[in-house]
Amino acid sequence: MTQDPLNLLVVSSEAVPYAKTGGLADVAGALPLELAKLGHDVILLLPHYRCLGESCRSFRPVCRLNVPTPLGAVDTLIEEDILSVGEGNCRVWTIRNEAFFDRPGLYQDRGTDYPDNLDRFSFFCRATIEVIAYLRTACRWNTHILHLHDWQTALCAVYLKTVCHDRPEVQGAHTVFTLHNVGYQGLFPGEQFEKTGLPLSLFTPTGLEYYGKVNLLKGGIIFADYVTTVSPTYAREILTPEFGFGLEGVLRNRADSLLGVLNGIDIDRWNPETDSYLPAQYSAANRSGKQRCKQALQREFNLPESSSPLLGVIARLTSQKGLDLVAAIIPQLMAMDLQLVILGTGEPELEAKFQVLQARFPHRMGLRIGFDEGLAHRIEGGADIFLMPSRYEPCGLSQLYSLRYGTVPIVKKTGGLADTVFPLTVQAGRATGFHVEEDTAEALLSVVRQAVAVYQDRSVWDQLIEAGMTTDVSWARSANAYDRLFLSLVRGEQPNGSS
Ligand code: ADP
């Protein structure tokens, strides 16, 4: 329990169990609850998308707020749900705007971004400022920390420091901006800048302009009081041209206020001892259920129930995840004694490539194109090896699930993958997986060969599994790091150290 309970307003464009397209939702759904467990009073703020109405959650009205926009004030309903898991509970407030959020997707429909995303997320951020004002004036709840996530929320930091700077009812909040992936920056045509409602004087290279475009992430990095990202290695990588996606200079200017804090995972939702998605449960001490999960997974994908190593992939099918490298080595993999199952959706060319390969090797390779939470759990439970050769990976969650499910990860040595998976070369008993050092098909193939060879040595393999399954991948550790950062900011001390 913290000595100093704070009021934390967490703003995200997605969070489980409400709306999810990727790892951000896992983080935004779990971290607020962990911070609440430490004694903080947490409110999570989300857009009220259509899928919230379709979820089993129920909301009650809180208030109506007038949100200023470049086209005039918009009367907006704020609703509330209480999210409660174990000892953690927090309020979840949603911002309703049917024209902007009552749509089939969060950011896009059938692969195409909504053309008015800048209007939608400018509105969301502007509404957040009104929520801060309402909390202070109507609820006597002063926001101590405004915790923002990714480009969709970046304008909150900009509004607070610029157009809303003179409003006493929103002053005093310290803004922390967490970068989950610098590859996604919220870029819009320069002509749309006025949609942000910001003065043109901010559309310059020292402001939100980026080679003639509007760059929301850049705005957040410049105007937030503190910037964090989701692993210590990624915090260093993004200062370089290879990983900074053009923002390395802007980030280097903030290097004194930049910290890498590893994500955790929701160990209740991802627990092989209780996971109801799995056909059999198991623990580190008794793994017999994992064998049954493997057989069931083989059946689910119409693969023979052999004892060869079963490799699993679950990912957005994008080049970031290095899945073109996986596709490139499948013919060689299929000549080895192993099986492969892939779950993913994303770039149409990659989907098509995997479909062609699956049709060629139907008895060794299973493929499911789509998003399927239950199947993701069953792959983590049933596979022997998890493949994650990401070109870059800010933190990555899937390899953490793999550790917890005794599925030995093969990862590219980058970002959070390098920080969470320890290769066989480290001291005996601590190794949990394998590192691929380069972004090449040859490097990946050679590490898979090495892993398959080690798989035959039961005692070494068991050590890898045990070390992984007993690694602490919970949120508790990460929440403590955020807790320390937030308290330092509120006390006016210089935060230090990466976690
Ligand atoms: P990212 O956020 O870059 O997509 P992460 O590894 O941080 O990558 O998180 C991915 C999350 O999304 C994990 O919870 C993973 O299980 C889930 N996921 C990705 N693709 C799918 C899919 N096709 N079906 C179900 N879950 C998926």
Question: Any overview of this molecule?
Answer:
The chain is an alpha/beta fold. The protein folds into two domains: 7-264 and 476-491, Glycogen Phosphorylase B (Rossmann fold, 3-Layer(aba) Sandwich), CATH 3.40.50.2000; 288-472, Glycogen Phosphorylase B (Rossmann fold). 37% of the residues lie in helices and 21% in strands. The strands form four sheets. Strands 3-4-5-2-1-8-9-13-14 form a nine-stranded mixed beta sheet, sandwiched between helices. The chain has a six-stranded parallel beta sheet with strand order 17-16-15-18-19-20, sandwiched between helices. It has a three-stranded antiparallel beta sheet with strand order 10-12-11. Strand 4 and strand 5 (88-95) form a beta hairpin. The longest helix is centred in the first third of the chain and has 23 residues, at 117-139.
Instruction: Please tell me the total number of domains.
Output: 2
The name of the CATH topology of the largest domain is Rossmann fold
Instruction: Characterize the main sheet.
Output: 9 strands, mixed
CATH architecture of the largest domain: 3-Layer(aba) Sandwich
The rough form would be described as globular
CATH class of the largest domain: Alpha Beta
Q: For the largest sheet, list the strands in their spatial order.
A: 3-4-5-2-1-8-9-13-14
Oligomeric state of the chains? single chain
Q: Indicate the percent of residues in helices.
A: 25-40%
User: What ligand molecules are bound, each kind once?
Assistant: adenosine-5'-diphosphate
Spans of at least 5 consecutive residues whose pLDDT stays below 50 are none
The overall pLDDT average reads 96
Query: How many beta-strand runs?
Result: 20
Give the count of helical stretches. Answer: 18
The rounded distance between the terminal residues' Cα atoms is: 19 Å
Instruction: Say which CATH homologous superfamily of the largest domain is assigned.
Output: Glycogen Phosphorylase B
Radius of gyration from CA coordinates:
23 Å
**Share of β-strand residues:** 15-25%
